[in-house]
Amino acid sequence: MLIQRFRVAREKLGISQRELAQRCNFSPNQIARYENGLSEPIAESLRTVSQQLHVSTDYLLGLTDEPQGFFVPSDITPIEREVLDAFRRDGWLGIARLGIERAQQLAEVSK
Fold first, then answer.
1. Of the four, 54, 60, 73, 91, which is 20 to 30 A from 45 by CA?
2. Strands (E), 15-106
3. What Cα–Cα distance (Å) separates residue 73 from each residue in 13, 24, 47, 70, 100?
4. CA pair distance 34, 37, nearest whole angstrom
5. How far apart are CA 27 and CA 21, in angstroms?
6. Considering only CA atoms, which of 20, 24, 23 is closest in space to residue 12?
7. 3-class secondary-structure state, position 42
8. What pTM was computed for the model?
9. Using an 8 Å Cβ cutoff, are 57 and 47 in contact?
């Protein structure tokens, strides 16, 4: 799974093995070794590659089919939670209302 996902994620970005290795500060052939199953990355290297490929380590390891990995509610800010709640409650109209309310609050503060 790791071998295939490395390659697919890299190709989706349109970068070569050599370019990914440079971005990760690896030796020029290290990505080729990972993609050919000749070497397995240590945790820190896996994290670095996942950041450069814009996917989660869970995705690269085959623990999820979602490239961005699992969503953890604690990952969102209170403002993001408010937007999500407004959308779930009233759809796009809820977000528009929330935006208008926020704009009015900002206008009052700046007076």
1. 73
2. none
3. 28, 29, 21, 10, 26
4. 5
5. 6
6. 20
7. coil
8. 0.61
9. yes
Q: Which pLDDT tens digit goes with each residue over 71-99?
A: 666 778 888 889 988 888 888 999 999 99
Alpha-carbon distance of 100 to 109, in angstroms, equals 14
User: What token pair was written down for 88?
Assistant: 């779930």
Q: How far is CA 69 from CA 61, 65, 72, 86, 108, in A?
A: 10, 8, 9, 24, 40
Q: How far is C-alpha 77 from the chain's CA centre?
A: 16
Tokens 């697919």, located at residue: 8
Q: How far is CA 57 from the centre of its chain?
A: 10
Q: How far apart are CA 10 and CA 104, in angstroms?
A: 45
